[in-house]
Write a structure and sequence with these properties.
Layout lengths: L5 H37 L4 H16 L2 H14 L6 H26 L3 H9 L4 H31 L11 H12 L2 H38 L1
Helix pairs in contact: 1-2, 1-4, 1-6, 1-7, 1-8, 2-4, 3-4, 4-6, 5-6, 6-8, 7-8
């Protein structure tokens, strides 16, 4: 600890936490965009499109994120394509996030009563008009709590990227622990960092769930 004070450790971890947040936001935004495309494919009326979307979801939900990182980072390098750790982490987390968000949102879309579809169809709306004007606005409201809750999983999943050398919170914590010989202090700060990032999201998800449940109960009455 001669070269590193407690403040030095905290400052380095704070800088690393910024990369964790940046990676999580990137994965969530890009994953949400891809997930929306996969959602539309999953509920499409075309059989092969639905099958392709289902395969995408099955692959990225059914395999460990660590393996996906290895394939993108090390597998592409073996094929002669060098992928920086940041890009490999962003691609893997985007694919991972898209698969889960597509399924979360599909459940929300399918929770809309069939009568809503039939009523909009009776107004001669096309499938896209039904989705845009009737189904998606209602599904969006239902999807907010689980979507915010899933953001916690995305933040925690960023820790896996340390295995390919991306210097986020966990990787930086490991390097500081080796340099200072104070693993308890360093990893205590790391745990605190993840808690401060994840707890507000968890609390927001619970609050939104209660709020929308109450609103739904009043609407039912």
């Amino acid at each position: 600890m001669d070269e590193f004070s407690t403040w030095d450790i905290a400052r380095n971890l704070l800088f690393a936490a910024e990369w964790t947040v940046l990676l999580a936001i990137t994965a969530f935004v890009l994953g949400g965009t891809v997930g929306l495309v996969v959602l539309f494919a999953r509920i499409s009326g075309t059989g092969w499109v639905r099958a392709a979307a289902k395969l995408w979801i099955s692959v990225f939900q059914g395999t460990p994120l660590l393996m996906q990182l290895f394939i993108i980072f090390f597998g592409l390098a073996l094929a002669g394509v060098e992928v920086p750790p940041w890009l490999a982490a962003a691609i893997a987390l985007t694919c991972f996030t898209s698969a889960f968000l597509a399924e979360i949102w599909r459940g929300c879309v399918e929770s809309i009563p069939r009568g809503q579809w039939e009523a909009s169809a009776s107004l001669a709306m096309t499938w896209f008009e039904q989705m845009r004007h009737v189904v998606l606005p209602q599904a969006f409201r239902v999807s907010i709590p689980p979507t915010v809750g899933f953001m916690v999983q995305v933040v925690k999943a960023t820790s896996v990227t340390s295995i390919i050398g991306f210097t986020e919170l966990t990787k930086t914590g490991g390097m500081l622990a080796n340099a200072t010989f104070e693993p308890f202090l360093v990893y205590g700060f790391v745990a605190l960092g993840y808690f401060l990032l994840c707890y507000p999201l968890s609390a927001a998800a619970r609050l939104l769930e209660r709020r929308f449940d109450v609103a739904g109960a009043h609407a039912a009455h």
